[in-house]
Every structure is written in structure tokens, then in C-alpha cells.
Specification:
Blueprint lengths: L1 H15 L4 H9 L1 H15 L1 E11 L3 H5 L5 E11 L2 E11 L2 E2 L1 H7 L4 E3 L2 E9 H9 L6 E8 L2 E10 L2 E14 L3 E11 L2 E2 L2 H11 L3 E2 L11 E5 L2 E5 L1
Length: about 240
């Protein structure tokens, strides 16, 4: 009888505070199980066949009931995250709050909020080109090159019966905290400079080059560094 009353009170408490009852029970009796669930969801979120190190630091049980842990530290190499191939990534999430319904019902990672995220991401030129080619762009043979502090882009597109070559150089620019746009200095068509409205039309087709709004592991991008063959993103 007492056990039934306890379960009833537990159910009423979880309903009143919008808590997952299974998560509540595990957090109170065996919090390591909750940590294991979060660990498993991260391994599904980050798809890699090489390196993936995950360290989760638990706070109090009261915080864990709400889906919050003290810190999550992730290091990975050659990992696919949200259709972006990352050559190297390190993410430190401070006070992240996990969606427990998504975790328990769908075994998926969704970060509702966090204090901040310190992260480093390295993407290779060849992987960026592969990602760009998967987009449904109205251009052919798009190719991007990472140079030291400079970005080079070229592509071909069909105008009537003529296939024209477009070439441009420029920089990456952070927009809306977590989108990366390509901003060209000038554009040439078959080596002839083009007016500004043509440049805007082309950049509208290819931007954003990288959209990290759906990345649960980061917040705001603070710096982008271009090196030969590599782009490094930090926050």
C-alpha cells in the first residue's frame, strides 16, 4: 500500500513539474543510469568510427531530475554531426539541460539550454566541398579552396547554350551568431569582373556555407581562422 502511495505521489509530482517519471525515478535511485543514457545519446548524435571521448560530470540529483548536468566534455575525430564532417572537434558544455522526454522516449540528444559552450571545430577543404556539392545549387562543379586568411571559390553555370566559369575570392563572415557566410571581394565571369547585383545573386545561391543553428553542442561562434586546406571555428 505504501509503495502504491509513493508511486502515485511520484506520478503527481512529475506531472505537476513537467518531469519524466522514469528519469525522476532513475535520478533518485540510480543516477548513473541517467548518465549512461546521455552518453549513449551523444554517441548516436556524433557519428564516428574513429575517436569519441565523452566525460559527463553530474551535479546534484535535483538538477539531474530536470535533465541538467554540471559539464559535458566531448572530443572527437572524423565525425559526422548534423551532415557536417568534422575532422576534429572538442566541445565543453557548461551546465547543459537535456530534454529528458527526447532522451527517454526517443533516445535522442536535445540540449534545451546551457550556461555556455567552449568549442573548437576543424573542417577540411575536401569535406567542405563534399558538403557544398550535396546542396541543390543552380551551379555546376562548385569548388572551394582554403588559403591562408583567404577563401577561393569557383563554379560553372549554364547561360543559354554557354557554360561560363565564375571565380571569386573572399572571406568567411559570422552571421546571427552561428551561421557562416561567404563574402566575396569580387567576382569574375570568364575572367571578366561582374557588377554587384550579379555578385549578390551568386552569394544568395551558396550561402550560408555552413549553418550551425541546429548544433546542440555549441552556442555562439566567436572566431573563424582560414589556413591552407583547413578552416578552424571556435566559440
Amino acid at each position: 500500500m505504501r509503495k502504491l502511495q509513493t508511486l502515485l505521489l511520484l506520478s503527481l509530482y512529475c506531472h505537476a513539474h513537467a518531469l519524466n517519471s522514469t528519469a525522476f525515478s532513475e535520478a533518485m535511485t540510480n543516477p548513473e543510469l541517467v548518465i549512461e543514457r546521455i552518453h549513449s545519446a551523444i554517441t548516436t548524435y556524433i557519428q564516428t568510427s574513429t575517436e569519441l571521448d565523452i566525460d559527463i560530470t553530474m551535479g546534484s540529483r535535483a538538477e539531474l531530475i530536470r535533465g541538467q548536468v554540471s559539464r559535458v566534455h566531448i572530443r572527437t575525430q572524423r565525425a559526422m554531426v548534423k551532415n557536417v564532417m568534422i575532422d576534429f572537434g572538442e566541445f565543453i558544455l557548461h551546465d547543459p539541460r537535456i530534454d529528458m522526454d527526447q532522451l527517454y522516449e526517443h533516445h535522442k540528444l536535445r540540449v534545451l539550454s546551457m550556461g555556455k559552450s567552449d568549442f573548437k571545430i576543424r573542417i577540411l577543404e575536401e569535406d567542405m566541398n563534399s558538403s557544398i556539392r550535396k546542396k541543390r545549387l543552380q551551379i555546376q562543379e562548385p569548388q572551394i579552396r582554403f588559403l591562408d586568411d583567404q577563401l577561393y571559390f569557383r563554379a560553372r553555370f549554364q547561360t543559354l547554350f554557354i557554360k561560363s566559369l565564375v571565380e571569386t575570392q573572399g572571406q568567411f563572415e559570422i552571421r546571427d551568431q552561428n551561421q557562416i557566410y561567404f563574402v566575396p571581394n569580387r567576382i569574375k565571369l570568364n575572367r571578366i569582373p561582374l557588377p554587384g547585383f550579379v555578385k549578390r545573386s551568386l552569394t544568395d545561391k551558396i550561402n550560408p556555407i555552413l549553418d550551425l543553428r541546429t548544433f546542440d553542442l555549441i552556442d555562439d561562434i566567436k572566431e573563424i581562422r582560414l589556413k591552407s586546406g583547413v578552416v578552424e571555428i571556435e566559440g
